[in-house]
Amino acid sequence: MIFGTGIDAQEISAVQKLVERRPRFVDVILTANERAVFDERKGKHQWEYLAGRFSLKEAYSKAIGTGIGSAVHWHDLETDYTAQGAPVLVKHPYDKQYQAHISISHTGDSVHTSVILEDMASLTQPVSSHRPAWLEISASALAHNVAYIKELAHAERFMAVVKANAYGHGLPEIVTVALAAQVDGFAVATLDEGVWLRHFGVTLPIYILGVTPANQANILADQQLTAIVPSLNWLNEALAALTVAQKLPVSIGVDTGMGRIGIRDEAELLATVQTLQAAVDKVDFQAIGMHFATADGAGSDQAYFEKQMARWHALVDPLDLPATVIKHQANSASALWHDQVIAHDMVRVGAGMYGFDASSGVLEARATQPVLSLKAELVHVKQVAAGESISYGATYTTTEPTWIGTVPVGYADGYARLLQGADVLLPDGQRAPIIGRVTMDQLLIALPTEYPVGTVITLIGQVGQEEITLVDLADRLATIPYEVATGLSPRLPRRIVN
Fold first, then answer.
1. What is the pTM of this model?
2. What is the pLDDT of residues 136-151, one digit of tens each?
3. 136-354 sits in which CATH class?
């Protein structure tokens, strides 16, 4: 979550003149280490450096919400360079609370800086790495899905949708394996998710699929996050929020029947395109896209899909768009089952990349592979007599002497309380039922015989010929596999496996 942002601009020549009048100004602004860098530089590079640090420290104080001399002083802030030569704050007074993202750019006689302070709590959540329960993320399955869907859809570009902690799979892990699978970009739902990806080191295009408030366009531009343009009013407000040196990458959203966001009026769409073409110094018009509501269905759903396609062509085909503008329509379902009619410039794939059947078996099976498995070790094993009640509410009572295993996974991990009675898999592929209520951090299973503590239990995944899928759990919960996956808690560690 972003705590605060600050933007500042200074004239380099004005800073130089100020130093000529007040030579001590250099030491007021720069720390000893920064002064050493300043002294090493010559001519205009020296003054660019000083003006940049002056402006950056002003921007930082604005991000804090105060001013220099109040909550922060000049020497509280110090910059250095990364191995790639990018400036970085190596010291600032709130480094334990906020991650600082900085930008320094020079245009002629001007230096422009921005500082984004991101709450560290949003970057790091407690992970129970010492508890024997974890998710496994299959790098080979994800790579297979990317290549398979890209070929099936005849797509030139594959955009990996990693919103909502990568559909619960774990953002760092999925981004890592997706980059190895050579995806062409990423899509997220929120500005903060996009900023996180940039902080993680992603340099590929990043699309924000949700609407970002127009007054935050400066952050989008600074981080080079592609914003969806949901209306002409939004675009005009966003343009007004940009600084002179900023350029905002955008993709127009067209509403053909999903009804959430986007432009559905022909005149407004034309005016939006014309506004973008007239503002080439302030925007990078990258793409235009839509979203299907029923691409994963049959019957009347197929008729509605075709209705949306007809609306798209009626709205978009008459537009005189630059050849560089990417057309993107396809979500997972339309990429998997409608490649003959969708735009092939780019597909935006979330569910399919993770191996979900978006149609829930309604449409022809596709050869995607599940990426996620949930496993845990038995932490306690005991035998109880017949007639003993198990777990909260005494909802289960043994009818014979029974070996019971305790598994350290519960509803706080996203394994729902209503999954009492579901099966788990033992190492030999045998199924074992969950008995008694699933509790916050643990559940209990009935074992066919005594198993040693440390035995690996599979709650989601495949063992031999037996498999428990996200769809299986979703069916028991009367929901969809997306909800089950995104509900898996960040406290479960994610492990990349091959």
1. 0.79
2. 999 999 999 999 999 9
3. alpha beta
